[in-house]
Amino acid sequence: MILDIKRILILILLSAGSGFSFAQVLEAPADILTAEFHKQRREAFRQKLPENSVAVFFANPVRNRANDVDYLYHQDPNFYYLTGYREPNAVLLIFKESQQKKDGSFYNEIIFVQPRNKMAEMWTGKRLGDEGVKEVLGFTEAFENTKFDKYQLDFSAFNKVIFNDFYNDVRDEEKDNGDLYNLIEQFKGKVNYPGANKSLEIEPKRANLDTKSLEKIMDDLRGIKTPEEIELLKKAIQISVIGQVEVMKAMKPGMSETEIQGIHEFVFKKFGSEYEGYPSIVGAGNNGCILHYIDNQKPEIQNDELILMDLGAEYHGYTADITRTIPVNGKFSPEQKAIYDLVYKAQQAAIEASKAGATWKSTSDLARRIINQGLYELGIIPAIDAHHMYYPHGLGHHIGLDVHDSGNKDVFEPGMVFTVEPGIYIPEGSRCDKKWWKIAVRIEDDVMIGEDGNPILLSGYAPRTSEEIEKMMEQPSVLDQFVLPDLKESMSK
Ligand code: GLY
Ligand code: MN
Ligand code: MN
Questions:
Q1: Ligand 1: which atom is nearest the Cα of residue 277?
Q2: Which ligand is nearest to the CA of 308?
Q3: pLDDT tens digit sequence for 104-154
């Protein structure tokens, strides 16, 4: 990766004399979203707020895996989109109108973040703290989260206090007045959230609490990608399709589902992807019929099986979502090919029909019609309109900071990035000829609506037709040279 020297120099200059350690920032990739991007997104958000309102966002909770081990922390995508802040225990307020401080100055957004802490930073890494949030993320009003409790704001003076309702699933882990649990409790008290002020005899009215509007505003914003977001999405997608291609070349009967997952994810990491955008799905044979199969533990995939691989790299927050289904032995059987080609036909038609002005419903209906017609012609369903469960999911969804991203699903517009992913799944025991059993095919590609209104296929680097896949699978693999010691033998030495 070529480092963006200019950006690093700017950061060094910015940090000079501040006393704040920018080590963490200097090590950050040069192509992460800039403070300016997040600031503009806050501005765009503010434009969409109703008169005399405030919106309140909370960072994602830390989730415990077991004992003293937590899951890898992942910021709430709305919070990340609007701030760039990637740490827990924070709250952000965005105001429609500027608020006046006691000293007469004005502010229209304020953030409370976890404080710097030598001990915690020694164990789990650098924190930005309030000063870092100002200098790195460009906030002017930033405070330590312990100050939120005493923050004076009359929430009852707003027409609307807009936030997403709580799931009540945040643990009060720390004896820390600024942890997320306490931030939420303090907020509930400040806004008279029902049940919050237990000492009050009468349930306070919550006339100005609005837990509905935020989703719609974020759908409008996040559903249309900016050029910076499209760049990151393209990288996430390209990394993911390179993974698919390498697996096509390396695939051999006898490999395990886990090993195949590992090859994909190695490629993701090789190119700097921090996470998988969702748990990887690698299902051979009947396992492919489980739509979100994430066990991936079949020890030996069989020669005559198909393997369905739905994996997406997450790159600097943005995730791809791509599925390829390939024959383990490199050659589709006639039945596998018939199903595969039918899914491809439906998918290709739906991609071509995804144009600005067309409705999501129209492309979904088109794909379903093609699949029903094909299943009928193959004798798998008794009539074109017969009820069946061989295609039990929708055609696609937006992608972005979430794999199932925010966004309106009425009409296609330039700047939308989404999946097109029809599938046919015929589990063992289905009411059709046995020869179709255990065939599961999903083809999932990532598509963008260009400025001219036409669809642009972003994931076409990985072969999509049955013929192209068979050809790719004939190619030698770099992994042919990657020979590890035998596990048992190595243990006996
Ligand atoms: N990978 C989840 C989905 O395709 O929606
Ligand atoms: Mn998908
Ligand atoms: Mn998928």
A1: 1
A2: 3
A3: 999 999 999 999 999 999 999 999 999 999 999 999 999 999 999 999 999
